[in-house]
Amino acid sequence: MNIRKVTLSAVLLSTLWAPLSSEAQNPSIVVKTAQPVSEIQPTMWGVFFEDINLGADGGLYAELVKNRSFEFFKPLMGWKIQQKKFKEGTVTVQNRQEKNVSNPRFLSVKAENTVRGDLGITNEGFRGMGIKNGLRYDFSVMYRQTSGSVKLHVELINAKGENIGGTTLIPQKNGNTWEKQAVSFTANATESKGKLNIWFEGNGEIDLDIISLFPEDTWKKRPGGMRADMVQMLADMKPGFIRFPGGCIVEGFDLSQRYQWKKTLGALEDRQLIINRWNFEFSHRPAPDYFQSFGLGFFEYFQLAEDIGAEALPILNCGMACQFNSAEIAPLDQLEPYVQDALDLIEFANGDVSTTWGKVRAGMGHPAPFRLKFLGVGNENWGPQYLERVKIFTKAIKAKYPEIKLVNSSGTDPNGERFDYLNNELRSMKADIIDEHYYRQADWFLQNAARYDSYDRNGSKVFAGEYAAQSDKTVSVDNKNNWKCAIAEAAFMTGLERNAQVVNMASYAPLFAHVDGWQWTPDMIWVDNLRIYGTPNYYVQKLYSLNKGTHVLSMTQNNQALTGQDGLFASASLDKNTNEVILKFVNTSKQDISREINLEGVKKTEKTGKVWTMQSNDPEVVNSLNNPVQLSPKESAIALSGKNKFALTVAPGSFTVLRIKTL
């Protein structure tokens, strides 16, 4: 189901919005339009990506074959050998070990007078394969046919085992060198739980590796690319940045499992697979088949950011593994390779083609620099050991690239001794940006709408790097993406926007989740193998991002910011590019709230404005694959008098965005 473009109604809100009458007695909200408080950074609202919940392999990365290079701990995980008459040694997994460290294993097949149906292998995909009727599928394989002649009959099957499309691949070369060959075919049915069969025919021996199947309809139709509907959901938000690749996978359970960006570049066969740390993190949601193939690597992340007009925000390991798991750290006298990785990454992103890493980028098809501006040092790390490493990274990076803004961690929680220590120390170090995380129940977000009102306007800036209201509790399988949580986030975000002089970046987390393969909930966007939907939380984020404005405006009632009085939260901004005042209102109460709005400093407005509203009296309402836009923005028009005052009634349980063009 395609929900990339939401059709909104255009109904005049005559009952909720009306020109101010002379008899109106509602309290007044004053918006000072002629005195902008501060700029709003273009990066204000962004997205955070981590390979959790099958976010990359099985999700954003459109590869349909699981364990395509037989490198999982169990080499045949995801595969099943089909043999009409069993014979030992017909199909074996070979290991080249030190001869090919990045990709040691491959499959060896011996065919003896084999006809189609006698001998084959089946891949189950990532919780099945999503197949679309009439779509072209591109199959490829690395092979080495050492003797004889062996054909490969490639077919897709549905959940009943019926053929829904296929073709035959006839290897073109024999010998001891590896070759790559591709063939395409069209599916003749739609199936959400498809599988791939490869049947062998002939006499001889053939070795197979990097067995791959991609749909034609990837993002921008790039071969071996990303799932288009998932990228489109991000592009529709017009995010200011995309943070990648995580998250906890940056750290790894221990340092051997940390994310190493250089190993995600180049040809697929040179990208060294590692276990995903979410493979075994939660006993209540085990995922023993969760690995990182790195088909979606750092080059692809930079390319994605460029595609959707977002700044890239890569996060690098700072020589510390997950402190909740192993707490392993690299000694300070062995930190140089980690620091060099950071310097090399900046060169990869920004360097001229004559530089070592700029040349690598150009060789991958992007001679122009990516113009990286931000870099994160560590993820959710804490303690004096983290600060020691941050100082070393900062000194080295600023010496060579003083223009790069560095993002530093304030730990896992938004308060407490650990947070206070890091926050104070980083601010004394004049850190560029401090990354704060908060996974808390909905009430916390309502209570903290004024969190940044007292922060130093001239000190380190804040990145609200990971946040999501929890309907139950953190790491609970019962957490829901319901309206109660989404509206609490909307209320909290009025405080982020009001304090844009302090908060320069913010992103909900996690981003994606597969309905059959998640480890963590809540999540912003949910998918199965064919469908996708945005949660109410997604639409809140989207409304903020699309209605950001360029400058914060003062918005007060009785000279106070609106931070929950009578259940009303609000913020205001000015878009100098369009001469529009943008007002955001969140009513968390169960009653209508009526106010007089005074756009102080405005002489005239157009007589019609635009309104987007999300509203429900049911705090438990959620969206789903079968009802993807149950709670989503409804667009309407607002009739104005053309003057600078009007009456406003905000419905209970609602989030409303209003754009008024000034003249």
Descriptive key words:
663 residues, TIM Barrel, 3 domains, globular, 9 helices, hydrolase, single chain, 36 strands, Jelly Rolls, Immunoglobulin-like, alpha+beta, 9-stranded antiparallel beta sheet
How would you describe this structure to a colleague?
This protein is of the alpha+beta class and 663 residues long. The protein has three domains: 11-40 and 551-661, Immunoglobulin-like (Sandwich); 50-62 and 218-284 and 296-546, Glycosidases (TIM Barrel); 79-215, Sandwich (Jelly Rolls), CATH 2.60.120. It is built from nine helices and 36 strands. Strand 29 and strand 30 form a beta hairpin. Helix 3 crosses helix 4 (356-363) and helix 8 runs parallel beside helix 9. The longest helix has 17 residues, at 384-400. It is globular, with a radius of gyration of 27 Å. The protein starts with 10 loop residues before the first strand and ends with a strand. Residues 1-24 have low confidence and may be disordered.
Give me the secondary-structure topology.
Layout: E1 11-12, E2 17-19, E3 28-32, E4 38-39, E5 47-48, E6 79-83, E7 91-95, E8 105-114, E9 119-123, E10 129-131, E11 136-157, E12 163-169, E13 179-186, E14 191-215, H1 228-235, E15 241-244, E16 274-275, E17 291-292, H2 298-307, E18 311-316, H3 336-350, H4 356-363, E19 374-377, H5 384-400, E20 405-409, H6 417-428, E21 433-441, H7 442-447, E22 461-470, H8 483-498, E23 503-508, E24 512-514, E25 525-527, E26 532-534, H9 536-546, E27 551-557, E28 560-561, E29 563-565, E30 568-575, E31 580-587, E32 593-600, E33 608-615, E34 634-639, E35 645-650, E36 654-661
Parallel strand pairs: 1-34, 3-32, 5-15, 15-18, 18-19, 19-20, 20-21, 21-22, 22-23, 24-25
Antiparallel strand pairs: 2-35, 3-27, 4-27, 6-9, 7-8, 8-14, 9-14, 10-14, 11-12, 11-13, 11-14, 16-17, 25-26, 27-28, 27-30, 29-30, 30-31, 31-36, 32-35, 33-34, 33-36
Family: Belongs to the glycosyl hydrolase 51 family.
Signal peptide: 1-24
Pfam families: Alpha-L-AF_C (PF06964), ASD1_dom (PF22848), CBM_4_9 (PF02018)
